[in-house]
């Protein structure tokens, strides 16, 4: 029962949400202004909320007694299935905002489509997530425009972030065997047709931001099958520390 | 982060239909759009809002605290302006 496609699919969505949520939480207390500190906290909590609902559902599908905490805190990097994009370091403010734009502009239409899933639980989680991601798109887009069309330095930093992160965007539109079967039965969303929509929304923002869209060259891939960059291990060492050091700790 | 402060905006939130927008605080933001985001992120985290207004703080003309006596003291003696001199029939109940 543990290897069902639905379990894997749900876990992938959960892992991506958790890791990006954790990345945003790293800004809390370090943002340039308190307003953005709260914005990162809010967006991070949106994502962690999505992760919790998805982990709980994954645990129920697996039916081996693993709850959201067991799935989040007691799996190693190789078992994580998140997109490589979301585990990339925060870098500077521009890098975090550009990463948020690249992901949210994909996640928003993706969850909108998933809200029509034949799986009622996934559909309900997706309907809530779509609204949250709509705000992430708006916020990250407005910032990207102001950074790109801002000072020479903010423009350069935003363009650097875009060039650096672009090779991680291709993975969002991949679907492997695990997902293919679920797509055919109307449970999962086929990400490939969303690419044109995503490109258009990104290009609209970049045009206003006076930023240049990088060319689609070699794309990084592997997160969905557990092949991660070195960064994920560092994230997990912090994220999982408490449960590893004090198993079963509650408060 | 530059040393210059971003402009200040006053935030007004309407919590329910039928109520007026109420001043809840202020945020710093580079322009009106970002001020609206900042207001949403700062003041509506617990489901407080249905509608948010932001107004440049420097667009507000305020009374001078030094004028307090002239502005507000004269009303203190005009208690007949309070609607407390009517007998309300019991049938009306709580008003």
Structure report:
The complex is a heterodimer of chains A (251) and B (95). With 251 residues, chain A is an all-alpha fold. Chain A has one domain (5-212, 222-245): Ferritin, CATH 1.20.1260. Chain A is built from eleven helices and no strands. Chain A is globular, with a radius of gyration of 18 Å. Chain B is of the alpha+beta class and 95 residues long. Chain B is flat. The termini of chain B are far apart. At the A-B interface, helix 2 and helix 6 of A face helix 1 of B.
Highlighted features:
heterodimer, A: 251 residues, mainly alpha, Ferritin, 11 helices, globular, B: 95 residues, alpha+beta, Ubiquitin-like (UB roll), three-stranded antiparallel β-sheet
> Which shape of chain B, going by the Cα principal axes?
flat
Assembly of the depicted chains: heterodimer
CA-based gyration radius of chain B: 20 Å
- Outline the biggest β-sheet of chain A: none
- The helix-and-strand class of chain A reads mainly alpha
CATH topology description of chain B? Ubiquitin-like (UB roll)
Portion in beta strands of chain A:
under 5%
Brief synopsis:
The complex is a heterodimer of chains A (251) and B (95). Chain A is mainly α and 251 residues long. Chain A is built from eleven helices and no strands.
């Amino acid at each position: 029962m543990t290897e069902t496609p639905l379990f894997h699919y749900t876990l992938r969505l959960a892992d991506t949400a958790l890791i990006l949520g954790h990345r945003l939480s790293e800004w809390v207390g370090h943002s340039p202004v308190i307003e953005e500190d709260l914005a990162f906290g809010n967006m991070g909590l949106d994502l962690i909320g999505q992760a919790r609902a998805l982990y709980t559902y994954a645990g129920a599908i697996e039916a081996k007694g693993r709850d959201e905490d067991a799935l989040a805190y007691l799996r190693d990097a190789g078992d994580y299935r998140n997109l490589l994009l979301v585990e990339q370091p925060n870098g500077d403010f521009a890098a975090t905002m550009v990463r948020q734009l690249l992901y949210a502009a994909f996640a928003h239409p993706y969850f909108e489509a998933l809200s029509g899933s034949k799986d009622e639980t996934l559909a309900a989680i997706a309907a809530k997530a779509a609204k949250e991601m709509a705000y992430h798109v708006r916020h990250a887009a407005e910032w990207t425009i102001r950074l790109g069309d801002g000072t020479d330095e903010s423009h350069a930093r935003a363009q650097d972030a875009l060039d650096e992160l672009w090779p991680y965007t291709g993975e969002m539109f991949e679907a492997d065997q695990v997902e293919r079967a679920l797509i055919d039965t109307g449970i999962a969303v086929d990400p490939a047709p969303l690419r044109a929509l995503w490109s258009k929304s990104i290009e609209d923002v970049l045009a206003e931001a006076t930023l240049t869209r990088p060319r689609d060259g070699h794309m990084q891939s592997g997160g969905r099958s557990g092949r991660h960059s070195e960064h994920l291990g560092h994230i997990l060492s912090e994220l999982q520390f408490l449960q590893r050091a004090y198993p079963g700790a509650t408060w | 982060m530059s040393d210059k402060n971003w402009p200040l905006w006053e935030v007004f939130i309407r919590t329910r239909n039928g109520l007026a927008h109420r001043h809840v605080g202020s945020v710093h933001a580079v322009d009106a759009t970002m001020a609206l985001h900042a207001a949403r992120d700062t003041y509506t985290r617990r489901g407080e809002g249905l509608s948010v207004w932001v107004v440049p703080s420097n667009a507000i003309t305020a009374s001078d605290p030094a004028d307090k006596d002239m502005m507000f003291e004269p009303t203190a003696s005009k208690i007949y302006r309070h609607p407390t001199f009517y007998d309300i029939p019991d049938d009306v109940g709580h008003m």
